Amino acid sequence: MIKKILLIVFIFFSCSNESNNIESNPENISLFVITEDIAVGENRVLFTVLDKEGNNISQNLKFSLKKLNHEESKSIEDYELINWPGKRIVFKTNINFDTAGYWEIISHYRNSKASGVIDVKEKSNTLSVGENISLIKTPSLKEKEMNELSTDVNPNENLYKYSLDEALSTNIPIILSFSTPGLCVTATCAPQLSELKSLSNDYEDKIIIIHVEIWENFKEVMNSGDFSVGILNKSVEVFGITSEPWTFLINEEGIVKNRYQGYVDSKELREDLVKINVHDQ
User: What's the pTM value of the predicted model, to 2 decimals?
Assistant: First the structure.
């Protein structure tokens, strides 16, 4: 049993390298790639740009992508702004990487340029789009009390009604989300659950939403303050979850249709639910 899980500390300066060359970056801007688990193929990629004071830059920016140490680059035209927890601004884009290796996203702002490096793997560490999800039992209210299922201070019972294996047998689309709000170091786990609760209220019996804590023994971890005593929930290990939050959209056939590393708001999830023919009305 793995005793530790790597948690992304989202402080906007720990996710990647940036260019600090004074000549090419006189305003000392920084670009940080938030998404860690990136593989060959289509990927949802999140990144942010900061000024020298650590404030978000969201206007007058252009972006490009290239293989590290290669000259040829291509413009990133299709991206959108996301309001991130903590009053931050994050850019979201979808990038199709054709080869593994180190790539970089480059930001152009006035006379300055900064880049963030991405390690693109041959295969993702966790569930990929198009994969069939395994019939795995996850903790639910059928076996445990609510205080044994969630560190959320105001849990919604609808998110703990089903084990994953039971949900897959219903032939209803599923949103499966992994996070531990009571121990979250990214400050996005509780906001993520709030978005899922909103969806649960609006979609009722049209989708099943399942929240799984990272740690099976989260009470022991919280009481001791020691992550090394933590025992991962089985599904966290099986699906290779190494950061939080992670959310997966699964269709009625049990196939992963989209995946979201880091925070994803209900607006994006609603748009993706429509793509698999699920509507709130």
Answer: 0.90
- Whether 30-121 shares its CATH topology with 146-275 is answered no
Residue 238 parent element (H or E):
helix 234-238
d(CA 76, CA 65): 7
- Domain coordinates in residue numbering, the chain: 30-121, 146-275
d(C-alpha 88, C-alpha 107), whole Å: 17
**Topology of domain 146-275, per CATH?**
Glutaredoxin (3.40.30)
Which residues are bridge partners to 121 per DSSP? 39
Q: What is the Cα–Cα distance from 2 to 230, expressed in whole angstroms?
A: 9
| Integer Cα distance of 220 and 64 in angstroms | 46
Do the Cβ atoms of 56 and 74 come closer than 8 Å? no
Q: How many CB atoms lie within 10 A of CB 102?
A: 13
Positive or negative CA dihedral for 139, 140, 141, 142? negative
Superfamily of domain 30-121: Macroglobulin (MG2) domain (2.60.40.1930)
- pLDDT tens for each residue of the chain, 281 residues long: 344 444 433 333 334 444 445 568 889 999 999 999 999 999 999 999 999 999 999 999 999 999 999 999 999 999 999 999 999 999 999 999 999 999 999 999 999 999 999 999 999 999 999 999 999 999 999 999 999 999 999 999 999 999 999 999 999 999 999 999 999 988 899 999 999 999 999 998 899 999 999 999 999 999 999 999 999 999 999 999 999 999 999 999 999 999 999 999 999 999 999 999 998 76
* CB contact at 8 A, 249 and 256: yes
